[in-house]
Amino acid sequence: MASQPRLTSDMARTVFAMPAYLLDQLVVRLPAGAETLRARRWLIAALVAILSLPAFAADETAKVLVIYSNGRLLPANVEADRGLRAVLEGSPGRQLAIFDEFLDYPRFGGEAYEREFANYLRGKFGDDSPDVIVAAGNEALQFVIAHRAGLYSRVPVVHMGVTKQWLSTLPPLPAQIVGIPWDLDFAGTIEEALRLHSTARRLVVVTGASARDRQWEAELRSEVVPRFNGQVTAEFLAGLPAAGLRKRLGELDDNAVVFLAGFFRDGDGRDITPRDAAEAVASASAAPVYGPFETFIGTGVVGGRVSTFEDFGRRAGQSVRRLIDGASPESLRLPEVMPARLVVDWRQVRRWGIDAGAIPDDAVVRFRQPTFLEANRTEVMIAMAVFLLQAGLIGWLLVERRRRRGAEHAVERQRHELAHASRLAMAAELTGSIAHEINQPLGAILNNADAAELILDSGADHRDELRAILADIRRDDRRASEVIRRLRALISKHEVDRRPFELNEAVREVRAILDAEARRRRVTIDVLPARSPVPMMGDRVEIEQVLINLVVNAMDAMADVAEERRKVVVSVDNVTGGAEIAVRDHGHGIAPDRLPRVFESFFSTKREGMGLGLSIARTIVEAHGGRIWAENAPGEGAIFRMQLPATDFARQPSAGQP
User: Above 90 in pLDDT, residue 188?
Assistant: First the structure.
């Protein structure tokens, strides 16, 4: 919503200056009649009300007169003005008009000058007196007190930047003059400097040549410096020409500390601001420089115990605002003194090798480059949280991986235990055939030994016959040893031994083991090897165990068929990516409803079977990266097929090589 237009004093004067005949013309031009007469009356009343408004609109804006002791561009005045205007212009309430005036001390001064300045203010503002006067600095307050009788004696005054030390020399201030004094803490700054430079033995005090500078020098000589006698030796460089001061400062050593009170005029008679003086002294000094003003920070001065000029302005602005809003000066309840604390320049701390741990926690550190963590605290915290989350997740995954591997190893051990138990059960089932297989060569050996003994008893020379008998004995012994070797390899308990082997040879080994059992059952085992070698990588004993299990199951499936049909065919073929072994019987096949379950644990089609053989066989095949399945053969019987990945011998290390 647009704001309503406000009647200003110029508008009011314009209305009052309106010619009377214009009013008459407005009324006369209205048409006649009773309703018109009533309208005339309302119009006349409204115009009279407007004309009766006092020209007080301009008085709604409160006026604040600020009188500064020094020049307009003094850094302290700039900082104080910023704080004052931030409060006065940023607070709700009556509109304010701020008028700034500058005594420009110490370039100008004296009673005559002050009288002229007072006349200037009376002529400038006339009877339109300000609502509040702000006196910024000792000289400004002294001027207001001296000329208050002729300058708006009833207007309340707020002082800022007035030192507590100077104020203590005055009689009690009138009730309408209020403010928060400033403790110009020379001693506090020197004490902080000597604490930060505990090895310093010289205190060099630099002052200027103006009246204010000489007052500060006198205070330092009489009250401040004597407090540090016995701790350091004091030396004053007071009112020296610029060249001489630079020379003396450049000759200082690391045992010295410089205290600069700031000065307005150097020994050459040139006016200078205290900040510019601080910059000149700090650039020339071979020792660290300290000062009592906040505006010195950034000029090369290390620091000092200070109050901020912007805070002066803010505190004074708060008092002005309350007075404008109707509070009495007596009701303000202001603090006794402005707060102060140590302020240091971090660059100078690094330059002079000051121990950062010696800087108090409540000190203000300027120009300190934030660390990476300080400049990116939020991002670092997020990154750390993500890192910790990832680390926790990785740790959890590692634990889970370890548990999984432990579980896999446990399963692998159980699989080997089951496979070994299965081999033992299989060996027990084949005991009769194996015993017969061993007895045959042992019986032949015995017969040959008897024959040799008879030849020897005869006394005849039958060397050739004895050599033939010994050859037969050696052959039969090897035959028996081979049977025992195969049996021992089958039933021995061993760790997983993945080595290269040739699949055709493994199939022939299985037939040799089962030959005796096949003859006992009157079953024919035909082996159809692949036309080319089939290199494999794996545990040969376990693969042979699977084949033995499949062939024995095939012989069991043909137990009740005619003898001429009892035939097991074991074939090996090269297929894409590996080899396929097929074991076919000529029995009755597998019922379709049982075919999907033949590899399940504890499922068996035999009356006395436990249902673990084929389950163990599937586990072994899958552990070798292959697969096994069953299907009914066309016509009659069943076929168990097993596919295993093939391996090139040339790419595999030989046994015993890494």
Answer: yes
pLDDT in tens, 231-265: 999 999 999 999 999 999 999 998 999 999 989 99
CA-wise closest residue to 140 among 226, 76, 55 = 76
* Mean pLDDT of the region 594-620: 75
Report the interhelical angle of 540-557 vs 503-521 (nearest 10°): 30
Tokens, residue 546: 């699977």
CB 80 within 8 A of CB 161: yes
User: What single-letter DSSP state applies at residue 220?
Assistant: I
For the record, the structure tokens of 415 come out as 């699989």
Q: What burial class does residue 454 get, using C-beta atoms within 10 Å of its C-beta: 0-12 exposed, 13-18 middle, 19+ buried?
A: exposed
Alpha carbon distance 268, 279 (integer Å): 17
Of 228-242, 501-515, 550-564, 610-624, which gets the smallest average pLDDT?
A: 610-624
Pick 425 or 546 by higher pLDDT.
546
Cross-strand partners of 133:
65, 157
* CA 288/CA 623 separation, integer angstroms: 80
Q: Considering all CA atoms of the chain, what is the largest pairwise distance in Å, rounded to the nearest integer? A: 183
pLDDT recorded at residue 57: 42
What digits encode the pLDDT tens for the residues 101-154?
999 998 888 999 999 999 999 988 888 889 999 999 999 999 999 998 888 888
Judge whether 538 and 495 are in contact, CB under 8 Å: no
Are 508 and 445 within 8 A, CB to CB?
Answer: no
Beta bridge partners of 260: 206
- Cβ count near 654 (within 10 Å): 8
Nearest to residue 633, comparing CAs of 596, 584, 581? Answer: 584
Q: How far is CA 589 from the centre of its chain?
A: 69
Question: 383 pairs with which residues across the strands?
Answer: none
Residue type, 514: L
For 190, residues 6+ apart whose C-beta sits below 8 A from its C-beta are: 203, 224, 225, 228, 259, 290
Q: Distance between alpha carbon 451 and the CA centroid of its chain, in Å?
A: 95
Six-digit token pair at 528?
Answer: 């159809």
C-alpha torsion angle, residues 418, 424, 428, 433 (rounded to 10) = 120
